[in-house]
Design brief:
The chain is an alpha+beta fold and about 170 residues long. It has a single domain (about 10-160), classed as Gcn5-related N-acetyltransferase (GNAT) (Aminopeptidase), CATH 3.40.630. It is built from 4 helices and 8 strands, in the order βααβββαβαβββ. Helix 3 (about 90-105) links the parallel strand 4 (about 75-80) and strand 5. Helix 1 crosses helix 2. Bound molecules: coenzyme A. Coenzyme A binds next to strand 4, helix 3 and helix 4.
């Protein structure tokens, strides 16, 4: 994308649902979230979704974190960037921003699962400090295995310090 305006990051809103569905279609070949699942994700109290928005207001990426009661480990539940925008550092910045959200909520660790054949995502995660912890056989519907990876965040702030609604849009370019 050659826009002079860097993409922005903001929290997802209910009205983003259709755009999130389109993004999911564009980004994943299989194992996609349905509209119903995405709608549920946007409403879940224990989930935070940040979206990447370009200068035209189009959604170009999103990432969702899940939090569990009594756990200091957040889970990266979904993470993608539109194919047209890939390779420009948006994924890295989105993941950095999600890590900051997790830190603000008092999380000490971020974990994720990644397809064993997803070299680009695994490469990004490794370079950002995630280590493979567990091999999960037959994890995806097509039988592909996954690596569970995680990273210590060194969080020290209380979980209540930031609510999703309080986070303002921020430039990521
Ligand atoms: C994984 C994903 C989110 C990365 O987004 P992105 O915006 O391309 O990420 P970045 O531009 O920050 O690039 C990430 C790194 O991968 C490299 N990279 C990007 N595309 C690449 C490609 N096709 N081949 C090899 N390396 C590539 C970049 O050079 C960059 O390297 P760096 O960290 O050394 O700078 C994106 O590829 C994507 O949406 N993939 C499909 C969905 C997916 O797999 N999600 C992850 C599920 S676990």
């Amino acid at each position: 994308m050659n826009s002079p305006h860097p993409p922005l990051l903001r929290d997802a809103r209910p009205e983003d649902l259709e755009a999130l569905c389109r993004l999911e279609q564009a980004c994943f070949a299989g194992d996609r979230f349905s509209r119903r699942q995405l709608s549920h994700l946007l409403k879940r109290a224990n989930a935070v979704t940040r979206v990447v928005v370009d200068a035209d207001g189009e959604l170009q990426g999103y990432g969702t974190l899940l939090f569990r009661r009594n756990s200091r480990t957040a889970r990266l539940y979904s993470f993608c960037v539109h194919p047209a925008l890939r390779g420009g550092g948006v994924g890295r910045r989105l993941l950095n921003a999600l890590e900051a959200v997790a830190v603000d909520r008092g999380m000490q660790r971020l974990s994720l699962e990644v397809r064993a054949d997803n070299r680009v995502a695994m490469g990004l995660y490794r370079r950002m400090g995630y280590l493979p912890r567990r091999w999960l056989d037959d994890y995806y519907v097509d039988g592909c295995a996954a690596w569970q990876m995680d990273k210590p965040l060194g969080a020290s702030t209380p979980a209540e310090s930031v609510t999703p609604a309080a986070a303002a849009p921020s430039p990521i370019g």
